[in-house]
């Protein structure tokens, strides 16, 4: 008995047939994990964290990503002589954090870290304990950076607000923080600190957000005080592509760590597919393998194993028109890239955008299927609609990826 995908008669080696092979025979078809991570890393925008030791940088990264690895210090790796990087997720990064170390201990020259950022969407996040007014090491680094890149936005995150609370005091309503009785000293310190950062050179905006992320056993409620305001500010100040990613991660959280991690994997692998498909003929072999790798990654997140039966069920739920479109559009993109001039400019760009969109949509359809299987519900219901809804969203994201300027001005 033929499986649904086998009856489509797709061109040999293309499209869904190749994806199926990559899923059912991952040892033969999966792309090298290091290559996947590196390709995604090249595309991922960067949040540059500047702050003194114990200012709360790792805590903020954990709050934004929901990744507990950051809390125990295992998520970061050395990147330059003065910085370490955290890639989220490590397997196919969709967002990177650059943490500059040792501010205040030795003279800091940001040149090497600026070179690491070259070509990426970016913004600078300064992290400072709210009651610590000795911020000259951070300010000196920012002055140097803003002289080279005057329009870069800076977000000052004032942390550890409870350092300025009277004993036994809990967080006040967030909107009333500055005018709460008993917190006058904290308010004065915050204003003084913020004024110093607002006097930085350059034309880029400087925004200030108070945040206090604490463990549950410390007794402060809520434990993620000001996190929504932080995410709002990041989305507002960040370059467009980074803003889209932050918004997507935020919308996908919903109290479910699996949804958040699945979203980031989908974005990361879609970026990898776009990168490989921009090169003539390379995508002919690599994009289906990347898509197969994505399906394996999502299955691991949801604790579900792909086999012939589940892949047959999933392919049937996608629908024959979707599978046929995946196969034929992929082959046509590879041929189009070989057309002189057009194929190597507009054709390559269109191929990359299409591979990004179809990989993204396939990932969302798979996430929908796997989540329902994990929860013991009818797994095939709504799979095709999930693909089509995600495809529309993905095409908008692909346009953002193509049109966003690099932002590497040196005025």
Explain this structure to me?
The structure is a single chain. The chain is α/β, with parallel strands linked by helices and 411 residues long. The chain is 52% helix and 11% strand. The chain has helices spanning 15-24, 26-29, 33-43, 57-65, 111-117, 136-148, 184-198, 227-237, 240-253, 257-277, 282-302, 308-318, 320-336, 346-374, 383-403, and strands spanning 46-51, 76-78, 83-88, 95-100, 122-129, 154-159, 206-210, 212-213, 224-225. A hairpin with a 4-residue loop joins strand 2 (76-78) and strand 3 (83-88). Residues 1-14, 278-285, 328-348 and 403-411 have low confidence and may be disordered.
What's the gist of this structure?
Helix content is 52%, strand content 11%. The protein has 411 residues and is α/β, with parallel strands linked by helices. Residues 1-14, 278-285, 328-348 and 403-411 have low confidence and may be disordered.
Topology:
Blueprint: H1 15-24, H2 26-29, H3 33-43, E1 46-51, H4 57-65, E2 76-78, E3 83-88, E4 95-100, H5 111-117, E5 122-129, H6 136-148, E6 154-159, H7 184-198, E7 206-210, E8 212-213, E9 224-225, H8 227-237, H9 240-253, H10 257-277, H11 282-302, H12 308-318, H13 320-336, H14 346-374, H15 383-403
Parallel strand pairs: 1-4, 1-5, 5-6, 6-7
Antiparallel strand pairs: 2-3, 3-4, 8-9
Helix pairs in contact: 1-11, 3-10, 8-9, 9-10, 10-11, 10-14, 11-14, 13-14, 14-15
Index terms:
alpha/beta, seven-stranded mixed β-sheet, 9 strands, two-stranded antiparallel ribbon, 411 residues
């Amino acid at each position: 008995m033929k499986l649904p995908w086998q009856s489509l008669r797709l061109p040999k080696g293309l499209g869904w047939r190749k994806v199926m092979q990559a899923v059912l025979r991952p040892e033969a078809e999966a792309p090298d994990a290091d290559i996947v991570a590196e390709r995604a890393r090249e595309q991922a925008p960067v949040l540059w964290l500047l702050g003194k030791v114990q200012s709360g940088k790792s805590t903020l990264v954990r709050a934004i990503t929901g990744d507990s690895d950051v809390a125990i210090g295992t998520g970061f790796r050395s990147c330059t002589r003065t910085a370490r990087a955290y890639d989220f997720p490590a397997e196919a990064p969709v967002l990177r954090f650059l943490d500059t170390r040792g501010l205040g201990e030795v003279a800091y020259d940001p040149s090497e870290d600026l070179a690491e950022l070259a070509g990426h969407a970016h913004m600078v996040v300064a992290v400072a304990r709210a009651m610590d007014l000795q911020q000259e090491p951070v300010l000196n680094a920012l002055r140097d950076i803003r002289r080279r890149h005057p329009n870069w936005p800076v977000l000052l995150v004032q942390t550890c607000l409870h350092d300025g609370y009277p004993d036994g005091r809990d967080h006040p309503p967030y909107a009333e923080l500055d005018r709460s009785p008993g917190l006058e000293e904290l308010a004065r310190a915050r204003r003084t600190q913020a004024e110093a950062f607002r006097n930085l050179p350059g034309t880029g905006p400087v925004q200030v957000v108070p945040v206090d992320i604490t463990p549950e056993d410390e007794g402060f409620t809520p434990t993620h005080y000001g996190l929504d305001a932080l995410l709002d500010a990041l989305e507002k100040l960040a370059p467009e592509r980074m803003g889209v990613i932050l918004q997507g991660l935020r919308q996908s959280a919903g109290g479910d760590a699996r949804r958040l991690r699945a979203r980031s994997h989908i974005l990361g692998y879609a970026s990898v597919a776009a990168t490989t498909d921009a090169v003539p003929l390379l995508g002919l072999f690599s994009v289906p393998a990347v898509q197969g790798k994505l399906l394996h990654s999502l299955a691991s997140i949801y604790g579900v194993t792909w086999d012939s039966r589940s892949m047959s069920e999933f392919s049937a739920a996608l629908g024959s028109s979707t599978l046929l479109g995946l196969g034929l559009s992929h082959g046509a993109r590879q041929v189009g890239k070989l057309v002189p001039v057009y194929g190597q400019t507009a054709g390559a760009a269109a191929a990359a955008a299409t591979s990004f969109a179809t990989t993204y949509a396939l990932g969302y359809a798979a996430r929908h299927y796997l989540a329902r299987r994990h929860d013991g519900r009818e797994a095939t219901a709504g799979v095709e609609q999930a693909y089509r809804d995600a495809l529309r969203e993905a095409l908008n994201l692909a346009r953002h990826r193509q049109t966003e300027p690099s932002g590497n001005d040196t005025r």
